[in-house]
Amino acid sequence: MFERLPHELLKFIISEISIQDVKNLSQTSKHFHSSTLPTLWTSVVIPAWSTKDTYGIRIDGFPLDRLVFMKSISLRFVTENNARACPHDRRLQTCQEANDEEIVDKLSSFEKLTEVILALLEKFEKEQLTSFRLHLETLELDLVNWPHLRKALGYRNDNERVRRMRARDYMHKSILGLDIHSPHITFPNLHTLVLSHVPLTATLVQSINFEVLRSLTIRSCPQWYDFVLAIARRRIPVRLKELELQESWPKNDAATDETEDGDPTEVLLEYFQGLEKFYLDQTGDMLSKDTWENVCHHSSTLKRFVNHSNFYNEELEVWTDLPDMMINERDKERWWDDPTSSPLYNLDLDFIGLSCEPIHLLDVLNPFSKKDCLKVVHVRQSRKNLEYTWSWGIMVITDDEPVDDTPAVDEGENPSSEYLEPMFWAFVEWAFSYKGIKSLEYIVFGDFGRPERTSRGNLLICREGYGSEDFHIIRESCPSPEWDYVKKEYGDALRSCPSLRSIV
């Protein structure tokens, strides 16, 4: 009877179940075997389980008729401690100096990797690859460590020209096949673009059909401001629904906050309307209040908003979270006394993520106590930040004295010596009280920028029901249906703007 389901309904069911269930379903009948092929072969992983295996990877038995379903090929190798790793890990930059043998095995293990990939690509039909860019719908490009790659190409900086070509122009011409002298739309059907550590130029702007593009992610890309400002300067029609922007420093070639056009993010936000999701990781001196006022330009459509604020600690020489998000006491008092005076009051959000110490959250989120929309609050403290300061969410009690004024954070059934940090507890208690945010269902704490890892320091606080003041706390290290739901429904917002960054 199940086999008589319409194809579209079966396709929907397959998309909603786990990949393991899809595999099991594919083995029940020939009908389900053929129906599940596109899902099962969307992503292919090529593993290498030792240094020797990278020389002996064979693809002779690869089912060539499955190539038509493939959208991504991932590579995995094994480190010396037998842990799985990924070549996109930013820590791989250290292996270039061979000064950290524990991070990755010897580079010689990758000598044959190119040959393996090329052998696989040769199995595609003639012209199949060259036509991809015309039909390409999703493009993700991560150069991992642009300064090192730039040096390997023979450039000392981004402004230097080799054979009359800048490094970023070389990348666009060689990798993306763009015509830097006569740019035109190269990717007419692209609806999702994810760029990480990729040097950007106005040429790339002219190569994308922004009337088709719906999701744009820019993470720590050199000259990102040129790309962003070019969109507004050229009056390009934009119909984006999702935008993730992780600013990198400097914001312009002069290494200052000031540009001739104004703050690039502000310019872009005011240029168009219609965003449903906006995830922003800021650098520099832009006040959060000003950012929120700019975001209100999308108030009629915006449902999910993340704002992570950073500053560069010159003493430590690292980027770290800005715990007060440059919010002054006078504004906080005004928002508490009159919630409608806050820019956030104008936003009908169901999700908000802020890199804000809990001591500020009561005032900042008080506007949502007068609304009936907000379901999830994510308190973002990056793992990097925890290397230099204390946890905003959890405190550890070293003596045996019981703590009565804040709840314990247990490890499943096991009692714990860790408790909610008092100011975080005060926020949680207020948020779930009758004076707080009645629509709120979950408070999430922690850093989810590395989804392949779980952390016992990441917390999920679940309300027992609408308007209830009761709740329970679950660590990420304790699997639960609540965690599964939150990660599935809000995972893109939780993972947005990962904390690893550098000066570019």
UniProtKB/TrEMBL annotation:
It comes from the Eukaryota. InterPro entries: F-box-like_dom_sf (IPR036047), F-box_dom (IPR001810), LRR_dom_sf (IPR032675). It comes from Fusarium phyllophilum. SUPFAM superfamilies: F-box domain. Residues 1-44 form the F-box domain. It holds the Pfam family F-box-like. This is AAA family ATPase.
